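Structure tokens please, single chain.
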Amino acid sequence: MKKQQKCYIYTRVSTSMQVEGYSLDAQKDKLRKYAEYQEMSIVGEYSDEGKSGKSVEGRPQFKHMLADIESGKDNVDYVLVFKLSRFGRNAADVLSSLQKMQDYGVNLICVEDGIDSSKYAGKLMISILSAVAEIERENILVQTMECRRQKAREEMWNQAHRKRQDSACNLHLGGKRGLTGIPAKRSCNPHHDRHTDCLAHRQIQRGIQAALREQTGKTLRRTSGRAEHPQK
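Here you go.
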């Protein structure tokens, strides 16, 4: 009778990966189904939540799994991971960890990638994909930093734009009292739009200017009439 193989399953997720759909539960479900299909016995589960794959040092459950392999606690044959990127995103760490596992007779299966390190081409594919995963991690870092810088630039622009709007309104209103000497009224609404005051004041200015033009026109007409009919 064929001996049933034993395995550990390892899952890892970062905040960005949760958004993309590779949640811990989804990974575990996939790995359990694979183990059942391959008639493997799962004797241990390890999971790092919200941990980056750039280093082994930041993943306590991963280190715990390696320690259990070294101690021969369960005499496992395989470690199952959803994808190689879940095992690690640093090429040196991936290959070093894999070599340590293989020194104790344990191989790695990446279910989604279809990679088995016990096969002839398995370790070669792991070397290539681990390098790709590291490049992806660097790209993610660059994109994240660029998004943060862009957000900071937009916030600075918004603040400067609000200051310009405030300065323009203060200029139109003539400070606290306005150009007409009448105190500028404020709405009881805490979200009052300053542009309303600016518009109202411009309308007042237009009215004053129209009245001045009309008065000036009357004065000019009276002066012109006296010039045409001089007193005898």
